[in-house]
Write a structure and sequence with these properties.
By secondary structure, this protein is of the alpha/beta class. The protein has helices at about 5-10, 205-210, 270-280, 335-355, 390-415, 425-435, 445-460; strands spanning about 15-20, 40, 65, 85-90, 110, 130-135, 155, 175-180, 220-230, 235-240, 255-260, 290-295, 300-305, 310, 335, 355-360, 365-370, 375, 385, 415. Strands 1-2-3-4-5-6-7-8 form an eight-stranded parallel β-sheet. Strands 9-10-11-13-12 form a five-stranded antiparallel β-sheet, covered by helices on one side. The longest helix is centred in the last third of the chain and has 23 residues, at about 390-415. GO terms for molecular function: ATP binding; protein kinase activity. Keywords: ATP-binding, Kinase, Leucine-rich repeat, Nucleotide-binding, Repeat, Transferase. InterPro entries: Kinase-like_dom_sf, Leu-rich_rpt, Leu-rich_rpt_typical-subtyp, LRR_dom_sf, LRR_domain-containing, Prot_kinase_dom, Protein_kinase_ATP_BS, Ser-Thr/Tyr_kinase_cat_dom.
Protein backbone atom coordinates (compact mmCIF):
# COMPACT_ATOMS: atom_id res chain seq x y z
CA UNK A 1 0.00 0.00 0.00
CA UNK A 2 1.22 3.50 -0.84
CA UNK A 3 0.55 6.97 0.55
CA UNK A 4 -0.38 10.31 -0.98
CA UNK A 5 2.77 11.73 0.60
CA UNK A 6 4.91 9.29 -1.38
CA UNK A 7 3.00 10.20 -4.51
CA UNK A 8 3.40 13.98 -4.03
CA UNK A 9 7.10 13.70 -3.19
CA UNK A 10 7.84 11.93 -6.46
CA UNK A 11 8.98 8.77 -4.69
CA UNK A 12 6.57 6.72 -6.79
CA UNK A 13 7.56 8.14 -10.17
CA UNK A 14 7.75 5.37 -12.76
CA UNK A 15 5.71 2.90 -10.71
CA UNK A 16 3.48 0.41 -12.53
CA UNK A 17 1.21 -0.40 -9.56
CA UNK A 18 -0.40 2.13 -7.23
CA UNK A 19 -2.62 1.37 -4.22
CA UNK A 20 -3.96 4.28 -2.17
CA UNK A 21 -6.36 3.77 0.72
CA UNK A 22 -6.61 6.95 2.81
CA UNK A 23 -10.28 7.91 2.86
CA UNK A 24 -9.78 10.03 -0.23
CA UNK A 25 -12.69 12.29 -1.18
CA UNK A 26 -10.88 13.76 -4.19
CA UNK A 27 -8.79 12.14 -6.88
CA UNK A 28 -5.07 12.94 -6.30
CA UNK A 29 -3.96 14.93 -9.33
CA UNK A 30 -0.40 13.63 -9.03
CA UNK A 31 -1.59 10.22 -10.31
CA UNK A 32 -1.78 11.72 -13.82
CA UNK A 33 1.98 12.28 -13.65
CA UNK A 34 2.36 8.48 -13.78
CA UNK A 35 0.76 8.38 -17.26
CA UNK A 36 3.73 6.72 -18.96
CA UNK A 37 4.14 3.86 -16.47
CA UNK A 38 1.00 3.15 -14.43
CA UNK A 39 -0.66 -0.16 -15.35
CA UNK A 40 -2.63 -1.05 -12.20
CA UNK A 41 -4.47 1.54 -10.10
CA UNK A 42 -6.29 0.50 -6.92
CA UNK A 43 -8.25 3.26 -5.19
CA UNK A 44 -10.60 0.93 -3.33
CA UNK A 45 -11.99 1.78 0.11
CA UNK A 46 -12.05 5.56 -0.33
CA UNK A 47 -14.85 8.12 -0.76
CA UNK A 48 -14.41 9.06 -4.41
CA UNK A 49 -17.39 10.12 -6.51
CA UNK A 50 -15.79 11.06 -9.82
CA UNK A 51 -12.64 10.97 -11.94
CA UNK A 52 -10.94 13.94 -13.65
CA UNK A 53 -11.60 14.68 -17.32
CA UNK A 54 -7.97 14.00 -18.18
CA UNK A 55 -7.95 10.55 -16.55
CA UNK A 56 -7.55 9.01 -20.00
CA UNK A 57 -3.99 10.34 -20.09
CA UNK A 58 -3.14 7.18 -18.14
CA UNK A 59 -2.42 5.51 -21.45
CA UNK A 60 -0.75 2.41 -19.96
CA UNK A 61 -3.54 1.69 -17.45
CA UNK A 62 -4.92 -1.86 -17.79
CA UNK A 63 -6.57 -2.51 -14.42
CA UNK A 64 -8.68 -0.13 -12.31
CA UNK A 65 -10.14 -0.99 -8.90
CA UNK A 66 -12.62 1.50 -7.44
CA UNK A 67 -14.32 -0.94 -5.07
CA UNK A 68 -16.14 0.49 -2.05
CA UNK A 69 -16.31 4.15 -3.07
CA UNK A 70 -19.24 6.52 -3.65
CA UNK A 71 -19.73 6.57 -7.43
CA UNK A 72 -23.34 6.88 -8.61
CA UNK A 73 -22.47 6.63 -12.32
CA UNK A 74 -19.53 5.27 -14.30
CA UNK A 75 -17.44 8.20 -15.54
CA UNK A 76 -17.53 8.39 -19.35
CA UNK A 77 -13.83 9.23 -19.44
CA UNK A 78 -13.04 5.53 -18.91
CA UNK A 79 -14.06 4.79 -22.49
CA UNK A 80 -11.11 6.89 -23.68
CA UNK A 81 -8.49 4.86 -21.79
CA UNK A 82 -6.70 3.00 -24.62
CA UNK A 83 -5.58 -0.11 -22.68
CA UNK A 84 -8.08 -0.36 -19.81
CA UNK A 85 -9.56 -3.88 -19.76
CA UNK A 86 -10.40 -4.72 -16.13
CA UNK A 87 -12.70 -2.45 -14.13
CA UNK A 88 -14.23 -2.82 -10.67
CA UNK A 89 -16.93 -0.60 -9.18
CA UNK A 90 -18.00 -3.25 -6.67
CA UNK A 91 -19.94 -1.93 -3.64
CA UNK A 92 -20.43 1.65 -4.76
CA UNK A 93 -23.72 3.50 -5.19
CA UNK A 94 -24.02 3.02 -8.94
CA UNK A 95 -27.44 3.70 -10.39
CA UNK A 96 -26.53 4.55 -13.95
CA UNK A 97 -24.13 3.31 -16.62
CA UNK A 98 -24.05 5.88 -19.43
CA UNK A 99 -23.81 4.78 -23.05
CA UNK A 100 -20.20 4.73 -24.33
CA UNK A 101 -18.80 4.89 -20.79
CA UNK A 102 -16.95 1.55 -20.93
CA UNK A 103 -13.88 0.90 -23.08
CA UNK A 104 -14.49 -1.26 -26.15
CA UNK A 105 -11.74 -3.62 -25.02
CA UNK A 106 -13.25 -4.29 -21.59
CA UNK A 107 -12.48 -7.89 -20.64
CA UNK A 108 -13.44 -8.12 -16.96
CA UNK A 109 -16.20 -5.94 -15.46
CA UNK A 110 -17.16 -6.05 -11.76
CA UNK A 111 -20.32 -4.15 -10.79
CA UNK A 112 -21.43 -6.34 -7.86
CA UNK A 113 -23.47 -4.84 -5.01
CA UNK A 114 -24.81 -1.59 -6.47
CA UNK A 115 -28.21 -0.18 -7.42
CA UNK A 116 -28.11 -0.64 -11.19
CA UNK A 117 -31.55 -1.05 -12.77
CA UNK A 118 -30.52 -1.06 -16.41
CA UNK A 119 -27.47 -1.83 -18.53
CA UNK A 120 -26.66 0.40 -21.51
CA UNK A 121 -27.96 -0.74 -24.89
CA UNK A 122 -24.44 -0.68 -26.28
CA UNK A 123 -23.13 -3.50 -24.07
CA UNK A 124 -22.82 -5.65 -27.18
CA UNK A 125 -19.83 -3.64 -28.41
CA UNK A 126 -17.71 -5.12 -25.58
CA UNK A 127 -16.37 -7.76 -27.95
CA UNK A 128 -13.64 -8.98 -25.54
CA UNK A 129 -15.87 -9.30 -22.47
CA UNK A 130 -15.06 -12.57 -20.70
CA UNK A 131 -16.06 -12.02 -17.07
CA UNK A 132 -19.13 -10.06 -15.93
CA UNK A 133 -20.09 -9.69 -12.26
CA UNK A 134 -23.52 -8.12 -11.72
CA UNK A 135 -24.84 -9.87 -8.59
CA UNK A 136 -26.65 -7.73 -6.05
CA UNK A 137 -28.23 -5.10 -8.28
CA UNK A 138 -31.79 -4.35 -9.43
CA UNK A 139 -31.70 -5.41 -13.08
CA UNK A 140 -35.02 -6.38 -14.64
CA UNK A 141 -33.69 -7.24 -18.11
CA UNK A 142 -30.54 -7.67 -20.17
CA UNK A 143 -30.01 -5.64 -23.36
CA UNK A 144 -30.44 -7.65 -26.56
CA UNK A 145 -27.13 -6.35 -27.84
CA UNK A 146 -25.36 -8.58 -25.32
CA UNK A 147 -26.04 -11.51 -27.62
CA UNK A 148 -22.99 -10.16 -29.47
CA UNK A 149 -20.75 -10.74 -26.42
CA UNK A 150 -19.58 -14.01 -27.93
CA UNK A 151 -16.48 -14.25 -25.73
CA UNK A 152 -18.39 -14.12 -22.43
CA UNK A 153 -17.35 -17.06 -20.26
CA UNK A 154 -18.40 -16.17 -16.72
CA UNK A 155 -21.54 -14.24 -15.73
CA UNK A 156 -22.89 -13.57 -12.25
CA UNK A 157 -26.49 -12.36 -12.57
CA UNK A 158 -27.71 -13.53 -9.16
CA UNK A 159 -29.65 -11.40 -6.68
CA UNK A 160 -31.31 -9.08 -9.17
CA UNK A 161 -34.95 -8.58 -10.23
CA UNK A 162 -34.98 -10.63 -13.41
CA UNK A 163 -38.34 -12.32 -13.98
CA UNK A 164 -37.11 -14.16 -17.06
CA UNK A 165 -33.90 -14.68 -18.97
CA UNK A 166 -33.40 -14.37 -22.73
CA UNK A 167 -32.73 -17.53 -24.71
CA UNK A 168 -29.66 -15.99 -26.35
CA UNK A 169 -27.92 -16.02 -22.95
CA UNK A 170 -28.07 -19.83 -22.94
CA UNK A 171 -26.61 -20.04 -26.43
CA UNK A 172 -23.44 -17.99 -25.96
CA UNK A 173 -20.75 -20.34 -27.32
CA UNK A 174 -18.13 -19.80 -24.58
CA UNK A 175 -20.32 -19.34 -21.50
CA UNK A 176 -19.16 -21.83 -18.87
CA UNK A 177 -19.86 -20.38 -15.42
CA UNK A 178 -23.34 -18.88 -14.96
CA UNK A 179 -25.10 -17.94 -11.69
CA UNK A 180 -28.70 -16.71 -11.81
CA UNK A 181 -30.31 -17.60 -8.48
CA UNK A 182 -31.89 -14.97 -6.24
CA UNK A 183 -34.08 -13.59 -9.05
CA UNK A 184 -37.90 -13.72 -9.13
CA UNK A 185 -37.80 -16.06 -12.12
CA UNK A 186 -41.16 -17.44 -13.14
CA UNK A 187 -41.43 -21.21 -12.89
CA UNK A 188 -42.90 -23.01 -15.89
CA UNK A 189 -46.46 -23.84 -14.69
CA UNK A 190 -47.15 -26.38 -17.44
CA UNK A 191 -45.05 -29.27 -16.16
CA UNK A 192 -44.44 -29.04 -12.42
CA UNK A 193 -43.49 -32.71 -12.21
CA UNK A 194 -40.27 -31.89 -14.02
CA UNK A 195 -39.23 -29.63 -11.20
CA UNK A 196 -39.95 -31.86 -8.23
CA UNK A 197 -38.42 -35.06 -6.94
CA UNK A 198 -38.05 -36.57 -3.48
CA UNK A 199 -34.98 -34.35 -3.09
CA UNK A 200 -36.23 -31.25 -4.92
CA UNK A 201 -38.73 -28.74 -3.59
CA UNK A 202 -40.24 -25.44 -4.57
CA UNK A 203 -38.44 -22.49 -3.03
CA UNK A 204 -41.32 -21.74 -0.65
CA UNK A 205 -41.15 -25.10 1.11
CA UNK A 206 -37.58 -26.06 0.35
CA UNK A 207 -35.97 -25.49 3.73
CA UNK A 208 -38.87 -26.96 5.67
CA UNK A 209 -38.98 -30.08 3.52
CA UNK A 210 -35.26 -30.72 4.08
CA UNK A 211 -35.44 -30.19 7.85
CA UNK A 212 -36.01 -33.89 8.77
CA UNK A 213 -32.82 -35.02 7.00
CA UNK A 214 -30.64 -31.93 7.57
CA UNK A 215 -30.89 -31.05 11.29
CA UNK A 216 -31.10 -27.45 12.41
CA UNK A 217 -28.46 -26.79 15.08
CA UNK A 218 -27.39 -23.88 17.25
CA UNK A 219 -24.05 -22.15 16.84
CA UNK A 220 -23.75 -22.10 20.65
CA UNK A 221 -23.39 -25.89 20.52
CA UNK A 222 -20.28 -25.60 18.35
CA UNK A 223 -16.77 -24.52 19.24
CA UNK A 224 -15.18 -22.72 16.29
CA UNK A 225 -11.42 -23.12 15.94
CA UNK A 226 -8.97 -21.95 13.27
CA UNK A 227 -9.96 -20.73 9.81
CA UNK A 228 -9.24 -23.41 7.20
CA UNK A 229 -10.66 -21.67 4.14
CA UNK A 230 -12.68 -18.76 2.86
CA UNK A 231 -14.22 -17.52 -0.34
CA UNK A 232 -16.65 -14.96 -1.68
CA UNK A 233 -19.58 -16.18 0.39
CA UNK A 234 -18.15 -17.20 3.73
CA UNK A 235 -15.46 -18.38 6.08
CA UNK A 236 -14.84 -22.06 6.86
CA UNK A 237 -13.66 -23.05 10.32
CA UNK A 238 -12.33 -26.23 11.80
CA UNK A 239 -14.72 -26.90 14.68
CA UNK A 240 -15.97 -29.47 17.13
CA UNK A 241 -19.17 -30.12 18.99
CA UNK A 242 -19.40 -28.71 22.50
CA UNK A 243 -22.92 -30.15 22.73
CA UNK A 244 -23.59 -32.67 19.98
CA UNK A 245 -27.32 -32.93 19.09
CA UNK A 246 -28.98 -36.27 19.77
CA UNK A 247 -29.77 -36.86 16.08
CA UNK A 248 -26.04 -36.57 15.24
CA UNK A 249 -24.77 -38.83 18.00
CA UNK A 250 -22.33 -41.32 16.54
CA UNK A 251 -20.94 -38.93 13.92
CA UNK A 252 -17.48 -37.38 14.21
CA UNK A 253 -16.88 -34.81 16.91
CA UNK A 254 -14.58 -32.82 14.62
CA UNK A 255 -16.44 -30.91 11.93
CA UNK A 256 -16.09 -27.99 9.50
CA UNK A 257 -18.45 -25.03 9.75
CA UNK A 258 -19.06 -22.49 7.00
CA UNK A 259 -20.40 -19.17 8.29
CA UNK A 260 -21.79 -17.01 5.51
CA UNK A 261 -20.66 -13.40 5.31
CA UNK A 262 -23.14 -10.67 4.39
CA UNK A 263 -26.48 -10.26 2.68
CA UNK A 264 -25.06 -10.48 -0.83
CA UNK A 265 -21.77 -11.78 -2.22
CA UNK A 266 -20.15 -11.73 -5.63
CA UNK A 267 -22.08 -14.95 -6.36
CA UNK A 268 -25.48 -14.07 -4.86
CA UNK A 269 -27.44 -14.54 -1.62
CA UNK A 270 -26.06 -16.83 1.12
CA UNK A 271 -29.57 -18.22 1.71
CA UNK A 272 -29.66 -19.47 -1.89
CA UNK A 273 -26.30 -21.15 -1.44
CA UNK A 274 -27.58 -22.94 1.64
CA UNK A 275 -30.80 -24.09 -0.08
CA UNK A 276 -28.99 -25.33 -3.18
CA UNK A 277 -26.48 -27.18 -1.06
CA UNK A 278 -29.33 -28.95 0.72
CA UNK A 279 -31.19 -29.68 -2.52
CA UNK A 280 -28.06 -31.24 -3.99
CA UNK A 281 -28.39 -34.16 -1.60
CA UNK A 282 -25.59 -36.62 -0.96
CA UNK A 283 -23.06 -38.08 -3.35
CA UNK A 284 -19.71 -39.69 -2.63
CA UNK A 285 -17.86 -36.85 -4.35
CA UNK A 286 -19.77 -33.99 -2.72
CA UNK A 287 -18.59 -32.60 0.61
CA UNK A 288 -21.17 -33.99 3.02
CA UNK A 289 -23.46 -31.53 4.82
CA UNK A 290 -24.68 -32.83 8.17
CA UNK A 291 -26.53 -29.84 9.65
CA UNK A 292 -27.50 -26.22 9.07
CA UNK A 293 -27.42 -23.08 11.19
CA UNK A 294 -30.13 -20.45 10.71
CA UNK A 295 -30.02 -17.74 13.37
CA UNK A 296 -30.56 -13.95 13.16
CA UNK A 297 -26.82 -13.38 13.59
CA UNK A 298 -25.49 -16.49 11.85
CA UNK A 299 -26.31 -18.48 8.75
CA UNK A 300 -24.14 -21.50 8.09
CA UNK A 301 -23.55 -25.11 7.20
CA UNK A 302 -22.03 -27.88 9.30
CA UNK A 303 -20.02 -30.29 7.17
CA UNK A 304 -17.85 -33.32 7.58
CA UNK A 305 -14.24 -32.25 8.07
CA UNK A 306 -12.23 -33.06 4.98
CA UNK A 307 -9.24 -35.22 5.97
CA UNK A 308 -5.91 -33.41 6.00
CA UNK A 309 -4.50 -35.57 3.20
CA UNK A 310 -6.84 -33.87 0.71
CA UNK A 311 -5.45 -30.89 -1.19
CA UNK A 312 -6.78 -28.26 -3.59
CA UNK A 313 -6.50 -29.43 -7.17
CA UNK A 314 -5.75 -25.93 -8.47
CA UNK A 315 -5.52 -22.25 -7.64
CA UNK A 316 -8.01 -19.47 -8.48
CA UNK A 317 -7.77 -17.48 -11.73
CA UNK A 318 -5.32 -14.59 -11.80
CA UNK A 319 -5.71 -11.11 -13.25
CA UNK A 320 -3.95 -12.45 -16.34
CA UNK A 321 -5.92 -15.69 -16.82
CA UNK A 322 -9.24 -13.94 -16.04
CA UNK A 323 -11.60 -16.94 -16.12
CA UNK A 324 -9.17 -19.84 -16.10
CA UNK A 325 -7.60 -21.49 -13.07
CA UNK A 326 -3.93 -21.32 -12.27
CA UNK A 327 -1.76 -24.16 -10.95
CA UNK A 328 1.35 -24.42 -8.85
CA UNK A 329 4.46 -24.64 -11.06
CA UNK A 330 5.17 -28.19 -9.90
CA UNK A 331 1.62 -29.48 -10.51
CA UNK A 332 1.89 -32.72 -12.47
CA UNK A 333 -0.67 -35.54 -12.71
CA UNK A 334 -0.51 -39.06 -14.08
CA UNK A 335 -2.97 -39.67 -16.90
CA UNK A 336 -4.86 -42.32 -14.91
CA UNK A 337 -5.16 -39.86 -12.01
CA UNK A 338 -6.66 -37.25 -14.34
CA UNK A 339 -9.19 -39.66 -15.84
CA UNK A 340 -10.13 -40.99 -12.39
CA UNK A 341 -10.74 -37.49 -11.03
CA UNK A 342 -12.70 -36.38 -14.11
CA UNK A 343 -14.94 -39.46 -13.95
CA UNK A 344 -15.85 -38.59 -10.37
CA UNK A 345 -16.47 -34.95 -11.27
CA UNK A 346 -18.76 -35.94 -14.15
CA UNK A 347 -20.61 -38.39 -11.90
CA UNK A 348 -21.10 -35.76 -9.19
CA UNK A 349 -22.27 -33.14 -11.69
CA UNK A 350 -24.71 -35.59 -13.25
CA UNK A 351 -26.11 -36.13 -9.75
CA UNK A 352 -26.51 -32.36 -9.24
CA UNK A 353 -28.41 -31.86 -12.47
CA UNK A 354 -30.64 -34.83 -11.68
CA UNK A 355 -31.50 -32.91 -8.50
CA UNK A 356 -32.15 -29.73 -10.54
CA UNK A 357 -29.07 -27.87 -9.30
CA UNK A 358 -26.33 -26.36 -11.44
CA UNK A 359 -23.02 -25.75 -9.72
CA UNK A 360 -21.97 -22.56 -11.49
CA UNK A 361 -18.34 -22.73 -10.33
CA UNK A 362 -16.77 -25.89 -11.73
CA UNK A 363 -13.10 -25.21 -11.14
CA UNK A 364 -10.00 -27.05 -9.98
CA UNK A 365 -9.65 -24.58 -7.11
CA UNK A 366 -13.05 -25.70 -5.80
CA UNK A 367 -12.00 -29.35 -5.96
CA UNK A 368 -10.12 -31.37 -3.35
CA UNK A 369 -8.23 -34.58 -4.14
CA UNK A 370 -5.98 -37.08 -2.38
CA UNK A 371 -3.14 -39.39 -3.37
CA UNK A 372 -5.61 -42.07 -4.47
CA UNK A 373 -7.28 -39.59 -6.87
CA UNK A 374 -10.44 -39.47 -4.78
CA UNK A 375 -12.28 -36.19 -5.32
CA UNK A 376 -14.48 -33.98 -3.16
CA UNK A 377 -16.09 -30.75 -4.30
CA UNK A 378 -18.62 -28.34 -2.90
CA UNK A 379 -18.93 -24.53 -2.68
CA UNK A 380 -22.47 -23.85 -3.92
CA UNK A 381 -22.17 -20.05 -3.83
CA UNK A 382 -22.83 -19.76 -7.56
CA UNK A 383 -25.34 -22.62 -7.75
CA UNK A 384 -28.78 -22.24 -9.32
CA UNK A 385 -32.08 -23.92 -8.55
CA UNK A 386 -32.95 -25.09 -12.07
CA UNK A 387 -36.60 -25.63 -11.10
CA UNK A 388 -37.20 -21.95 -11.86
CA UNK A 389 -36.18 -22.23 -15.51
CA UNK A 390 -38.16 -23.30 -18.59
CA UNK A 391 -37.32 -26.77 -19.87
CA UNK A 392 -35.09 -25.61 -22.73
CA UNK A 393 -33.04 -23.26 -20.53
CA UNK A 394 -32.70 -25.91 -17.85
CA UNK A 395 -31.23 -28.30 -20.42
CA UNK A 396 -28.95 -25.56 -21.72
CA UNK A 397 -27.56 -25.00 -18.23
CA UNK A 398 -26.12 -28.51 -18.33
CA UNK A 399 -24.56 -27.78 -21.72
CA UNK A 400 -22.99 -24.63 -20.25
CA UNK A 401 -21.56 -26.57 -17.31
CA UNK A 402 -20.25 -29.27 -19.61
CA UNK A 403 -18.06 -26.60 -21.22
CA UNK A 404 -16.68 -25.76 -17.77
CA UNK A 405 -15.73 -29.41 -17.36
CA UNK A 406 -14.10 -29.23 -20.78
CA UNK A 407 -12.00 -26.31 -19.53
CA UNK A 408 -10.99 -28.43 -16.54
CA UNK A 409 -9.99 -31.31 -18.84
CA UNK A 410 -7.88 -28.91 -20.89
CA UNK A 411 -6.21 -27.48 -17.80
CA UNK A 412 -5.37 -30.90 -16.35
CA UNK A 413 -4.03 -32.19 -19.67
CA UNK A 414 -1.63 -29.25 -19.73
CA UNK A 415 -0.17 -30.64 -16.48
CA UNK A 416 -0.18 -34.30 -17.48
CA UNK A 417 2.77 -36.62 -16.99
CA UNK A 418 2.51 -38.90 -20.00
CA UNK A 419 4.56 -41.53 -21.79
CA UNK A 420 4.32 -43.06 -25.25
CA UNK A 421 1.82 -45.66 -24.08
CA UNK A 422 -0.56 -42.88 -23.03
CA UNK A 423 -0.65 -41.23 -26.43
CA UNK A 424 -3.87 -42.79 -27.70
CA UNK A 425 -5.65 -42.16 -24.39
CA UNK A 426 -4.56 -38.52 -24.42
CA UNK A 427 -5.89 -38.19 -27.96
CA UNK A 428 -9.25 -39.57 -26.82
CA UNK A 429 -9.35 -37.27 -23.79
CA UNK A 430 -8.46 -34.29 -25.98
CA UNK A 431 -11.32 -35.23 -28.29
CA UNK A 432 -13.68 -35.36 -25.31
CA UNK A 433 -12.49 -31.90 -24.29
CA UNK A 434 -13.21 -30.63 -27.80
CA UNK A 435 -16.72 -32.12 -27.72
CA UNK A 436 -17.41 -30.49 -24.34
CA UNK A 437 -16.25 -27.08 -25.58
CA UNK A 438 -17.71 -27.03 -29.07
CA UNK A 439 -19.69 -23.86 -29.90
CA UNK A 440 -22.93 -25.72 -30.71
CA UNK A 441 -24.30 -26.34 -27.21
CA UNK A 442 -26.83 -28.94 -28.35
CA UNK A 443 -24.01 -31.16 -29.65
CA UNK A 444 -22.17 -31.29 -26.34
CA UNK A 445 -22.41 -34.55 -24.36
CA UNK A 446 -24.30 -34.79 -21.10
CA UNK A 447 -22.60 -35.49 -17.79
CA UNK A 448 -23.97 -39.04 -17.67
CA UNK A 449 -22.43 -39.76 -21.06
CA UNK A 450 -19.12 -38.24 -20.04
CA UNK A 451 -19.00 -40.26 -16.83
CA UNK A 452 -19.76 -43.47 -18.72
CA UNK A 453 -17.11 -42.74 -21.34
CA UNK A 454 -14.49 -42.05 -18.66
CA UNK A 455 -15.43 -45.23 -16.81
CA UNK A 456 -14.76 -47.20 -19.98
CA UNK A 457 -11.37 -45.54 -20.41
CA UNK A 458 -10.42 -46.42 -16.86
CA UNK A 459 -11.20 -50.06 -17.61
CA UNK A 460 -8.96 -49.93 -20.67
CA UNK A 461 -5.96 -48.41 -18.87
Amino acid sequence: MHTVEQLVSGELDGTTHLYLKQGLAEFPREIINLADSLEVLDLSDNQLQDLPDDFSQLKQLRILFLTNNCFTAIPTVLAQCPKLEMISFKSNKLQHIPERSLPDQTRWLILTDNHITQLPDDMGRLYRLQKLALAGNALTALPESMASCQNLELARLSANKLESLPDWLFQLPKLSWLAIDGNPLSTNPLDPSLFLSPHSHRESDHAEAQAPTIPLVALDDIQLEEVIGQGASGIIYRAKWSNQPDELQGTDQEIAVKIFKGEVTSDGYPQDELLNCLQAGQHKNLIKVIARIEQPNALGLVMELIPSHYHNLGLPPSLQTCTRDTFAPDSKFELKTIVTMLEQMASGLAHLHQHHVSHGDIYAHNTMYNADANVLFGDFGAATNLSKLPTSQRAAMQHIEVRALGCLIEDLLSHCLANDEDRSHITELTQLKTECMQPDLAQRPRFEQIAHQLQQRLQQQ
